Amino acid sequence: MALLFSPPLLLALVFLTAEVTLTTGSKKCAARNFGHDSVVCECNSTYCDSVGSVSLPPLGQYSSYLSSMAGSRLEPGQGQVQVNSSGAGLRLTVNSFQKYQKIRGFGGAMTDAAAINILSLSAAAQDQLLQQYFSSEGIGYSVVRVPMGSCDFSTRLYTYADTPEDYNLDNFTLAPEDINMKIPLLQRAQAFSPHPLSLLASAWSAPAWMKTNGVLIGKGSLKGHPGGKNHKTWAQYYIRFLEEYASYNLTFWALTTGNEPSAGRMTNYSFQALGFTPEEQRDWVALDLGPALHASSYPHTHVLLMDDVRLLLPYWAKVVLSDVHAGRYIHGVAVHWYMDRVVPADISLGVTHHLYPEYYLFGTEACAGWNPLDRGVKLGSWDRAEQYAHDIIEDLNQYVVGWTDWNLALDQTGGPNWVKNFVDSPVIVDAKRDVFYKQPSFYSMAHFSKFLLEGSQRVGVSPSRATELEYSAFIRPDGSVALIVLNRSPLVIQFEVWDPAVGYISSSAPAHSLLTLAWNTH
After folding, report:
1. 19 catalytic, yes or no?
2. How many angstroms separate the CA atoms of 208 and 275, rounded?
3. Sheet (strand 40-43) strand order
């Protein structure tokens, strides 16, 4: 579609896309404005902004990191902890004796589309992108979700066992997308990470010959019943996947029982889906998947049920986890963020946690730009960064132990996606210019992934009065405290933090900002 601009508007657009520099710690953001409410940071093969490795100041001081609609990107600051209150109208009291869940990690998905986009860059720019996500200089992602076979963010339809009636999986083979793209990139990501990455596998569809509808897409489930040959073969398919990846020295922390099982039952998805009711999933885990994993070389791989929207909770969890035979093989409940706005977190996540506290809750998929009314990529959208931060804080405050974004990287259209189901991503690649843009949502993720290391434990925070601020506090493994504060309002909000162990921190949250405060307690 051709767009016609008047000369003054053209001048304005030239100005908007001119490079500006914003301060962010060790390396500054090369900011570009594409006409939305904030900016992206442009990175190339030789330069990318970075806050660097974070080390906290000594006892009696605190560090702050600010990102905002106005253009701050993890902007570092430091200050003195005070002995006396500043008298601010709003006080957030950190109660380290109120202890809740421990963090597992944060990350994104290595889809076919993500791999295609990363590999469309020069080798040096690829390294730059992977370091931004996975290194200690970057934002410290520790979780990577890996689709088993194709999904909508593939360029074609395939599974690893497309030979009909191959119940022994004699012809099971990884796809070129795995061998040539995803596996090498996962190995490189692991090399940049200071810690072992937690890999998480999710399947979108079983092979067509095992399904009631005979195709990978739309409404369809496994033929027969749990305990039958199709269900047993589908369980073995998971084991074969783990074995094949292990041969490349990639082992999986967890797998889910299948992406969005309600889709293949209730909605006629235009892309890959496999339907399960909660009862079918319960019986498949109890009779097939659980025993197969237990008897394999991977008995310690975690199994996460559901992998779908929290609208289905607590009902789905009740059906599966109330069964002792299924429950013994399951470790957690995987949730997607879609439609979170219509389902309060406390009556879905909170109730599920209180019913089944021994099973953890884990966020496995989220993306902006999925809604038909607000579709695709918006370069520089701060509103979408706020949506991420709001959802993460809400989830963390309702016992979720980690939060996984969707595609690690997409192109400027929000693809490739074989059904044109285009969405947004924290990293958008422009292969023609050999650059990538770090969206505001990248920094939204960073405020959590960089500071809430695995093993960090959520603690209580209580406000002295009602406030528009959203917040969550954690004691990190080294005993230091991190407090994340989101201000979605158009006003600056002054506040102070009181940690009885150290004193008072006087602070303010700028309009439309995300702030991480961190301090040592000994």
Report:
1. no
2. 13
3. 20-22, 29-32, 40-43, 435-438, 427-430, 410-411
- Among positive and negative, which fits the CA dihedral 262, 267, 270, 276? positive
Spot the catalytic one: 75, 177, 260, 454: 260
Catalytic residue among 365, 394, 470, 496: 365
Distance CA(40)–CA(381), nearest Å, equals 8
Residues in the chain: 522
* 439 neighbors 381 (Cβ within 8 angstroms): yes
pLDDT confidence of residue 266: 78
Judgement on whether residues 77 and 92 belong to the same structural domain of the protein: yes
3-state secondary structure of 350: helix
Domain that holds residue 291: 106-160+173-197+279-449
- Asked whether the bond before 314 is cis by omega within 30 degrees of 0, the reply is yes
The pLDDT of residue 26: 67
Q: Are residues 17 and 57 in the same domain?
A: yes
Tens-digit pLDDT profile for residues 376-419:
999 999 999 999 999 999 999 999 999 999 999 999 999 999 99
Tokens 């690649």 correspond to 429
Tell me which residues of the chain have a pLDDT lower than 70.
1-26
pLDDT of 12: 41
**Element (H or E) spanning 327, and its range?**
helix 324-327
Cβ atoms < 10 Å from Cβ of 454:
18
Whether residue 444 sits in one domain with residue 464:
no
What predicted TM-score, i.e. pTM, was given to this entire model? 0.94
For residue 11, count CB atoms less than 10 angstroms from its CB and return exposed for 0-12, middle for 13-18, buried for 19 or more. Answer: exposed
Task: Compute the distance between CA of residue 387 and CA of residue 426 in angstroms, rounded to an integer.
Answer: 13
> What phi, psi does 273 have (nearest 5°)?
-155, 155
Q: Give me the torsion for CA of 450, 191, 333, 456, rounded to 10°.
A: -30
Yes or no: say if 377 and 412 are a contact pair by the CB < 8 Å rule: yes
In a domain, 412, yes or no: yes
Cα(487)–Cα(386) distance, integer angstroms: 9
136 and 93 housed in the same domain: no
260 is an active site residue: yes
